[in-house]
Amino acid sequence: MAPVDRTVAVLAYPGMSVFETGIVTEVFGLPRPELEVDWYQLIVCAERPGPVPVVGGAALHTPYGLAALAEAGTVIVPGVPDVTADPSPELVAALRRAHRRGARLMSICSGAFALAGAGLLDGRRATTHWRYADLLARRHPAVTVDPDMLYLDDGDILTSAGSAAGLDLCVHVVRRDFGAAVANAVARRLVIPPHRDGGQAQFIEAPVSVDPDDDRIAASVAWAVHHLAEPLTVAALARQAHMSTRSYLRHFARATGVSPIRWLIDQRVRASLPLLETTDAPVAEIATAVGFDSPVTYRHHFGRAMHTSPSAYRRAFRAGAA
Question: What is the pTM of this model?
Fold first, then answer.
């Protein structure tokens, strides 16, 4: 269930990319009457109300300052101007005040430095963009920094990696507040995968896209996605592309950057996620449904991709949705 105070405040700061506020705006700021729920109310705040210069020479103008930020139900810090500098005393005071009030605090990318600088991450696990993880750990040794996570949900404080992971975190919060159906509807509007678990690695070895210029590979991939439960071989995929196996391997690697088998494994793991989320089917049954030859193989590849087990993923998802 969504928090009683559905106000979401996002911090704007000089020199920021508008994409960082855009992530939050897309998820929490747009009205969504089709969902038939009491949606969030977004406000953009700055340390000093007025114009905030952003990348590209433009300026974002807001009448809201840190007082409004501290009073919101959810406070989001999408970044900091300088990861080597401490947050201002005024921002620290506002973040601490919000936390004392029981607000939910979130960071995207380098925003974790502001939460850490306010002392709010001491004794907690947190993540940030892989580029800044070592620096965050050095500057704030009381924080347990996990550089491999897309995002970390620690109840009242949530942190995420780079910008795309911030989008995943925002959709995760919608899922936590309103359930899977509403979160999936928002994800469809955004044309993104409905759910990426926070424990998934920041680097995903098997891409989900294929070079659109190679129609034969694209056609074979589209066919494979609809036949994941069947025994699929490279030879079968090559036949769909009307190529020899040797040519197919070469073209597939050029189009996707991985082997067909590695790609199939990734797709099967992804296909299992909604089954874990929305059904009570045994793990062994899910493994068969998405094409793995045994539950042991499924668990191995699931752990490799998601950094958790299928059962743990299901428990975490159900707890978050509840």
Answer: 0.66
